[in-house]
Amino acid sequence: MEGKPEAVHVLAVGDDFPTCRVAVLNGDEDREYLELPEGVRFLQLSELTADFVLIQLYNTLCSDCVAETKKLTRFYQKVEDDRELAGRLKIIGIGVYDSNLSVVRFRKHYDVAYPLFSDKSGQIFECLGQAELPLAYLVRARGDGTWRIELIKRGYFEPDEQFLNVLRSAVQRELRD
Fold first, then answer.
1. Counting Cβ atoms within 10 Å, is residue 177 exposed (0-12), middle (13-18) or buried (19+)?
2. Model pTM?
3. I need a labelling partner for 18 at 20 to 30 A (CA). Which of 11, 110, 136, 137 fits?
4. How many CA atoms lie within 13 A of 151 on its CB side?
């Protein structure tokens, strides 16, 4: 049918997170945290050894995204200090429609503790079928290089103790399965 826009499929819990490849912007520090081989210049989720990844999608000009990023930086330390989550859950941020340079400056300006990447063209964001930022996904490794969406947080959220417990529950379920 002419003139009818193509329907956008919005990914949901249970779907696979899209395959993506993004440049490593903070070198050795990011590679070490993500347990990537030395010298790797791009991150592909399929290369991660963690069981879970919390993926924050943000834009450097979005005020809610900035507020969430500041809170996620503090939350990152709680995750790293948690004996159940440390090493099993990684946190990354993807700057939607942000250049590599914008992301690097943003990370430095706000002293962001976790790795940030750029989705300059918005390709990853568009694959997700979403319309607003900030946005966060908890994804779980399937063991074959693909990642299942376990949880979606649309809009600004508080990464608080309750959310930490949600993450612990997901990891504990993984241990039982």
1. exposed
2. 0.90
3. 110
4. 17
